[in-house]
Amino acid sequence: MTHLDASNPLVLDVRDLGRRAGAMKTKSFTVELTEELGIGVLNVAQGSEVEFDLRLESVMEGVLVSGTALVTVTGECSRCLEPLSYDLEVDLQELYEYPDTDSRGREIEADFTEEDLPKIQDDLLDLESLLRDAVVLALPVQPLCKSDCLGLCVECGQNLNEQPEHEHDLVDPRWSALADLTKTEPRNKD
Ligand SMILES: [Zn+2]
Ligand SMILES: [Zn+2]
Question: How much is the pTM?
Answer without folding.
Answer: 0.77
